[in-house]
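input
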Amino acid sequence: MVTEKKPAHFFDMTILECIESQPVNKKHALLLNMTELSTKASLQKSRQAIIAAHIQHKTVILELEYKEKSASKKTLMSIMPLCHVIAGSPQAFHQASNIKNTTQALQYIREKSDAILVLKKDKQQNQIFEKEIVGEIT
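output
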């Protein structure tokens, strides 16, 4: 049974609360970033939230960030197949895949996930890849 008091943050909810909670049911998507995957506890809560989002037919978006300390490649590769959209800068895709070439990094991630890939170059120059990555990306 869900208590009357609702947690303020989605990731502080148990999976049952995620499924039954009115505020969460009103959301259209679950947005995760690499910071939320960097510790064992936050990774577990993120996985629960992803499961709840899938049960509720919500879109799961992973935002990759280029940071010195972030989730490991192994962790990201375990989460990426569960995502509907993966977005990030070229540097973030390089870091996530451990591949320096942007085209090869996106192709590697495409092998792991069918998610829509959004390459964020600047506010007006995003590239969207819904299927395979063909040609060299500039």
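quick obs: The CA atoms of residues 118 and 128 lie 5 Å apart.
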